[in-house]
Design goal:
With about 475 residues, the protein is α+β, with helices and mostly antiparallel strands. The protein has helices at about 10-20, 25-30, 35-40, 50-60, 65, 70-80, 95-105, 105-135, 145-155, 160-175, 180-185, 195-200, 220-235, 235-245, 250-270, 275-285, 290-295, 300-305, 340-345, 410-415; strands spanning about 5, 45-50, 190-195, 205, 210-215, 320-325, 330-335, 365-370, 375-385, 395-405, 425. The chain is built from 20 helices and 11 strands.
Length: about 475
């Protein structure tokens, strides 16, 4: 009678490849036959408890991580892929997806990789088109655009980094906090020094003196974030670099920006571990300020983390995040959902993210409707960075979180206010918005013929022919 076990073929194969082993090498390490390794990798034989123990002993792997249900995660991701509009005329049932994942795990993984590559190429084509229309020769060489494309293609979710950061968070808690863990694990003393001593640095690692230095004008949330980000470089550099390499960036600047973004991702995941944070967002109905107080994070850090909650089986509301300054410059744009502003927008003056500067620190909500009829719910507020002492300059920016309208009932912000009779009509950008009666329009849309005003001047900036 065959021993009971679990089917972990794709995970076993990935572990073997990550370790650079052949089936014969792994078989020798585990004291079983190469043919049995092959059968387990094809899910034709289960991985028994005895084999799992041998794996853990031979390769020092985390037993619980390895036995986690990988099939359910792949099935969840594949279901998400099949919701892409390109497949909208194909009716694929969840049971069929489960069959594919179980019977043809390599094909399922290939499908996920192909779809990620497809999304990246679609974004790249959009960037080239936008660049050509603006006359700047395209944005292919722009490192910021390259990193945004990289994050958007993955919906700003990196499961390997999230899992590693969550495990590290538990160790930090056992050590009594970030500073204690850094002292115990890396023999680095955390010191807070005034700006004139820091000479333009918020954080500096001094290996010679075995000190991690912080600007003492940073608030507590910012100090913790800087500690967590430095810890990400110290503990998770290999994982961060591997994730960044998937972007195949064309230049060093883009690769460095990607690694910095991923280190910040890890820092947020340490401060707001996935499982605990995902439970909290539901119990507090996505109250950003309340969540920030619970986890000791700022409004912006908390809002940013909300865009990353896409772990299969534990997904939360997919949000779009944007940060702009008073001049309308976009300094951060992340998309965990389907808001099209993630690619070529954010500048519609009718959107409240551009008007909240008139009411600093006051949270403003708004129902939005795009020209194609899609409806969304927006939360916007100003945030500050810098300052911290008299005479120290600070910067005021606005951040907004946006979700699809049907998710709004789960948010505390929509529960306690009446829904307006009509949402605010906005456009992604004037050049691709075809609302004819918009008085806020700054330029005509592509492809529309402008009417002369020899005999008639319309009440909108531009009049257009019907064709």
């Amino acid at each position: 009678m065959e021993k009971q076990g679990v089917y972990l073929g794709p995970r076993l194969r990935r572990l073997r490849r990550d370790l650079g082993l052949t089936q014969a090498h792994m078989a020798a390490d585990l004291e079983i036959s190469p043919s049995y390794i092959a059968l387990m990798e094809r899910n034709q034989r289960p991985v028994t408890a005895e084999t799992l123990l041998r794996l853990a002993k031979a390769y020092k792997i985390d037993f619980s991580d390895f036995t986690e249900d990988a099939g359910a995660g792949i099935a969840g991701r594949l279901e998400g892929v099949m919701r892409d509009p390109i497949f909208q005329d194909i009716d694929v049932l969840p049971l069929e997806i489960a069959d594919v994942v179980h019977s043809f795990p390599a094909f399922a993984e290939a499908m996920l990789r192909l779809h990620t590559a497809y999304r990246e190429e679609q974004f790249a084509l959009a960037d080239r088109g936008q660049g050509a229309s603006d006359g700047d020769g395209g944005a292919q060489g722009d490192p910021v655009t390259a990193v945004r494309t990289f994050l958007a293609a993955r919906r700003n979710f990196f499961p390997v980094l999230d899992a590693a950061s969550e495990r590290l968070s538990a160790k930090i808690a056992e050590a009594g906090g970030l500073a204690g863990f850094i002292q115990q694990k890396h023999q680095l003393r955390v010191r807070r020094l005034p700006p004139d001593v820091m000479t333009g640095s918020l954080r500096r690692l001094d290996w010679h003196r075995k000190e991690l230095l912080l600007d003492d004008t940073l608030d507590m949330a910012s100090q913790n974030f800087q500690l967590a980000q430095q810890l990400a470089y110290l503990e998770l550099y290999t994982e961060i670099r591997a994730a960044a390499e998937e972007g195949n960036f064309r230049n060093e600047n883009a690769r460095r920006l990607a690694q910095r973004s991923l280190a910040a991702y890890c820092a947020a995941a340490m401060l707001m571990p996935y499982a605990a944070f995902a439970r909290a967002v539901e119990s507090r109905h996505y109250d950003i300020e309340a969540l920030g107080r619970q986890f000791g994070t700022s409004f912006e850090q908390t809002a940013h983390r909300l865009t990353t909650l896409q772990k299969p089986g534990q997904e939360r509301i997919p949000f779009f995040f944007i940060r702009v300054d008073a001049a309308g410059n976009v300094s951060k744009r992340l998309n965990g959902g389907s808001f099209p502003f993630a690619r070529h927008g954010g500048g519609c003056p009718l959107w409240s993210v551009h008007t909240v500067f008139q009411t600093p620190r006051r949270l403003v909500t708004q129902w939005l409707e795009l020209p194609d009829g899609q409806r969304f719910f927006s939360i916007a507020r100003t945030v500050s960075s810098g300052g911290g002492a008299f005479g120290v300059a600070s910067v005021e920016r606005a951040v907004a979180l946006v979700c699809e309208a049907h998710f709004a009932e789960r948010l505390v912000y929509a529960r306690h206010q009446p829904k307006p009779a009509a949402p605010t009509p906005i456009g992604i950008a004037c050049r691709i918005c075809h609302r004819m009666n918009c008085t806020a329009r700054s330029e005509p849309p592509i492809g529309r013929q402008i009417l002369p005003d020899d005999y008639r001047r319309t009440d909108v900036p531009f009049g257009f022919s019907d064709s």
